[in-house]
């Protein structure tokens, strides 16, 4: 059986450099309610820490091309050997704007309801990236 995949794209009226900074510059990322914790090297840990200092996600950077590509794993917080998904962000220059493409390859059985919720979560997350990047 094929694993579920969520693929989303959004056009952001900002340069790829600005969109990239929404992910990598903690002072900007905090406008989204937290920050990514990483040293931004392939093989390094990669997680999301909320404003309350709680770690909500954990994984490893699989591929990285600054300003172009970020691919990371998402691991179970309790069982760090359990792969939940692989997430890929592509930052595509489109004139003066950026097309941000996000793909999540889900590695576990998911109900239709949870898949729908995950889809909606991606829409909201990308809208937030767009909002923050366009205000820079």
TrEMBL record:
Ranges for domain Activator of Hsp90 ATPase homologue 1/2-like C-terminal: 13-127
InterPro entries found in the cross-reference section: ASHA1/2-like_C (IPR013538), START-like_dom_sf (IPR023393)
Xref: Pfam families: AHSA1
Family recorded in the similarity comment: Belongs to the AHA1 family.
Protein's UniProt name: Activator of Hsp90 ATPase homolog 1-like protein
Provenance organism: Chitinophaga ginsengisegetis
The organism's taxonomic lineage, starting at the top: Bacteria, Pseudomonadati, Bacteroidota, Chitinophagia, Chitinophagales
